[in-house]
Amino acid sequence: MILMFFVIGQPMMAQTSTGEIDITVVDPTGAVIPNAILAIKGAETGNVVRQLKTNNVGKATAPLLPPGTYDIPATAPGF
Q1: How far apart are CA 35 and CA 14, in angstroms?
Q2: Nearest to 37 by CA among 69, 73, 6, 1
Q3: Contact indicator for 79, 31 with CB cutoff of 8 Å
C-alpha cells in the first residue's frame, strides 16, 4: 500500500485559474518512496492530465493544474 499526502496551495497575491498539488508518497511505515510514478487523472473523465515521478525524498509537485477533482494513483517497484 502506498500512502500519499497532498497539500494544495495557491498564491495569495492575485486571482488565478490554476492550482498546485504538492505530493509526498510514503509506505505504511511512513518511509518515503523515491521514484514513484504518479498519473494525475481527472476524476470525472479518467483522462491523464499529467505524469510525474517523485524525487529522492518521495516528493513531487504538479503546478498549473486547472480547478477540478483528481485521482492520483502511484506505482513503485516492490509495491
Answers
A1: 34
A2: 73
A3: no
Q: What is the pTM of this model?
A: 0.74
Opening angle at CA 22, ends 7 and 68, nearest 5: 75
Among 13, 23, 9, CA closest to 60: 23
| pLDDT tens figures, 23-58 | 999 999 999 999 999 999 999 999 999 999 999 999
Q: What is the spatial distance between Cα 77 and Cα 34, in angstroms, rounded to a whole number?
A: 10
With cell 515521478, the residue in question is 53
CA max distance for the chain: 43
